[in-house]
Amino acid sequence: xxxxxxxxxxxxxxxxxxxxxxxxxxxxxxxxxxxxxxxxxxxxxxxxxxxxxxxxxxxxxxxxxxxxxxxxxxxxxxxxxxxxxxxxxxxxxxxxxxxxxxxxxxxxxxxxxxxxxxxxxxxxxxxxxxxxxxxxxxxxxxxxxxxxxxxxxxxxxxxxxxxxxxxxxxxxxxxxxxxxxxxxxxxxxxxxxxxxxxxxxxxxxxxxxxxxxxxxxxxxxxxxxxxxxxxxxxxxxxxxxxxxxxxxxxxxxxxxxxxxxxxxxxxxxxxxxxxxxxxxxxxxxxxxxxxxxxxxxxxxxxxxxxxxxxxxxxxxxxxxxxxxxxx
Length: 327
What we know:
The protein contains eight helices and no strands. The chain has helices at residues 2-18, 30-42, 49-56, 61-73, 75-80, 92-222, 231-275, 280-326. Helix 2 (30-42) packs across helix 3 and helix 6 (92-222) runs parallel beside helix 8 (280-326).
């Protein structure tokens, strides 16, 4: 046991003299690495950088490698000094051959260890490179996602603006449609009023015709006794009545024509009312035309009314003259 402790102290002094301290392995001492390597060797495992680091739980791979190289260098002398395991004295040639073989074994072990370390460092470098590539890809994806989100926000803003403009246009069209519907209601009321006036005028014409017929019958009965004397006047009265009847028939035809025109215009108005939502400008022109026609019909009615009144006055004057002559 004393020889083992002395060997470990010797290894520690040698490591302290030959090892180069590094900032990353300041807390890993050579005795710690030597003890871990001895424990692994006793357990039947080959001391490697990963196994020593796993057993210690810390340490830099480079520092552990340096300490392991020292440990491998002094391993032969330590085995030779183990109690009960002394090597027998050998000839110098055999000892040199064994020493050479041992050095070759150490060199092979160092070479294998160096290859493994290089392989591990290469793998670590590749892994770091892959991590850097993944980080770059992640940053690119993040930038792409941010750009896509910004584009989506811009598209959403444009869509909102378009929706707002569409709502404003819809409100404007709705207000315009309400105004057109109000105008159509006014035109419909005007048409109904004209129809009522036309019906009243027709009733008046029928009443006038009935009055004329009654008056004619009364005249015929009154002048039955003096038919011969008043033949000329009766013929004149008949001729006048025929002309008046023709005039009334003509006026009736005109009124019926006007009524037909008004009904046709009413149907046209209904059709225009159905098309008013899509033909605002055309509706305004048709409305002006309709008002012009209605004004013409009203003027025609007024003329017919004045003519009828004038004829009624003429008949009353004729009756007054005939009564004076009879007196």
